[in-house]
Design brief:
The chain has 8 helices and 22 strands. It is an alpha+beta fold. It has 3 domains: 87 residues, Nuclear Transport Factor 2, Chain: A; 146 residues, Nuclear Transport Factor 2, Chain: A (Roll), CATH 3.10.450.350; 128 residues, Glucose Permease (Domain IIA). The strands form 4 sheets. Strands 12, 13, 15, 16, 17, 19, 21 and 22 form an 8-stranded antiparallel β-sheet that branches. Strands 6, 7, 8, 9, 10 and 11 form a 6-stranded antiparallel β-sheet that branches. The chain has a 5-stranded antiparallel β-sheet with strand order 1-2-3-4-5, with no helix packed on it. The termini are far apart.
């Protein structure tokens, strides 16, 4: 057996070859690992361009401002102002009032449109670019019906609030029935009422207080009905179920229920308490400064101090009727002898002048020299609805009653009205 012995002379060449192979292999690995491909790209970003951005400036009209000055403030050119005013031939745009809302719409620095809002139902759109155009925009409100009932436990006002009736509707109901019911003296625990009213909305926002369509008030076993309908001069009025006007020559009470009820803390006692029926008239105990209203249209017969009555006003009405208001704190500044007074007009304020131990109003209703109980005297009504309108009135009445009956069936007080 022979043994191979490498030649010492070629050994250096072998080692050199091995080193070369290792070098080549190592260089390839290093290049693969640490030399990734690098891609670079330069992006040129454009400078910000504001010419296409829409902006809006808002102005609320203040007392004493006019459209010319407002336009100048918001850089409406004189040429455009002249063109707008020239196209506004009826002066509808120019007639602005305090709290009107103006909106100026810009595209970049250039004025595009002007919007003038004259309340929730009327606005004007003025296109400025590319040419002047004026467009009137009228909105129709959405009318939503509401139905409520109430039972009086302590006061009519609190009964209304308890049943989530808006304060304005409570006051309107008291006014509507105020010719027949004295809401100071006549109201009793257990009296009840139901009411159907509509509220206008525009773009989801309430724009006015609710308006009563139909109401019934049960007071001491008497039922009073009010139905809204357009009477003389196409104005809304209220009539009973037979078309008789609820409006009468005199109001039952000389104190404004709305004022008294809306200015007291419901957690305290009502300011009108301890009422006393005097032999010559009626005494209304009320807080000092409560407005006193004339119960009927007439002429001031006398204003001044009247012995134990203190500061007193006497109003002369038709048919030898006079009304007297005594113990006033002061007179209304507009009151003087001989001037004409309208029904419901404020003539003075409750006080305790003369022989009075506490602030109150003494009220008398006289026919000739005879003093009459104001709470019982029969009061003449205004003219009834014209016979030519009765058919349409009956249709409206039946429609309101049908709606109210349907809603009453879902009301917790239903049994009290059936």
């Amino acid at each position: 057996m022979s043994t191979y012995k490498p030649n010492a002379k070629i050994l250096p060449f072998v080692l050199l070859a091995l080193l070369g192979i290792l070098f080549i292999y190592d260089a390839g690995v290093e290049q693969e690992i640490v030399s990734p491909e690098i891609i670079s790209e330069t992006l040129l970003l454009p400078s910000q361009n504001t010419s296409g951005i829409q902006t809006k400036k808002i102005h609320i009209v203040k007392e004493g401002e006019n459209l010319s000055l407002i336009f100048e403030k918001y850089q409406v050119s004189l040429n455009n102002t002249y063109k707008i005013f020239r196209k506004d031939k009826s002066d509808e745009v120019k007639k602005i009032l305090p709290n009107d809302r103006l909106e100026f719409i810009f595209l970049g620095e250039e004025l595009q449109e002007i919007h003038i809002h004259k309340g929730p139902l009327l606005s004007y759109k003025i296109e400025v670019f590319p040419q002047i155009l004026i467009k009137r925009i009228d909105k129709k409100p959405v009318l939503l019906n509401s139905f409520k009932t109430g039972v009086i436990e302590s006061s009519f006002y609190l009964a209304g609030l308890k049943n989530d009736i808006p304060e304005s509707v409570i006051m309107d109901l008291a006014y509507i029935f105020g010719w027949d019911i004295d809401f100071v003296f006549d109201i009793r625990v257990g009296d009840r009422f139901k009411i159907l009213y509509e509220t206008p909305f525009v773009d989801g926002q309430q724009i006015e207080n609710g308006s009563i369509l139909f109401a019934e008030f049960y007071n001491q076993n008497n039922r009073y009905t009010a139905i809204r309908y357009k009477g003389k001069n196409k104005k809304w009025e209220y009539f009973n179920e037979f078309g008789g006007s609820l409006e009468k020559a005199f109001l039952r009470a000389p104190l404004d229920f709305a004022y008294v009820s809306s200015h007291f803390n419901p957690n305290r006692r009502h300011p009108i308490l301890n009422t006393i029926r005097a032999h010559n008239g009626v005494d209304y105990a009320a807080k000092r400064g409560t407005p006193i209203r004339s119960t009927g249209e007439g002429v001031i017969q006398s204003v001044g101090w009247k012995s134990g009555y203190g500061r007193t006003i006497v109003i002369r009405h038709g048919g030898e009727i006079t009304t007297l208001y005594a113990h006033l704190e002061k007179y209304h500044p507009s009151i003087s002898k001989g001037i004409k007074i309208s029904q419901g007009q404020t003539i003075g304020f409750v006080g305790d002048s003369g022989l009075a131990t506490a602030p109150h109003l003494h009220y008398e209703f006289r026919i000739g020299e005879k003093r009459t109980d104001p709470l019982k005297v029969a009061l003449p009504s205004a003219s009834p609805l014209a016979q030519s309108k009765m058919n349409q009135f009956q249709e409206s009445k039946n429609n309101y009653i049908e709606i109210a009956d349907q809603l009453l069936s879902k009301d917790p007080n239903e049994n009290l009205f059936r």
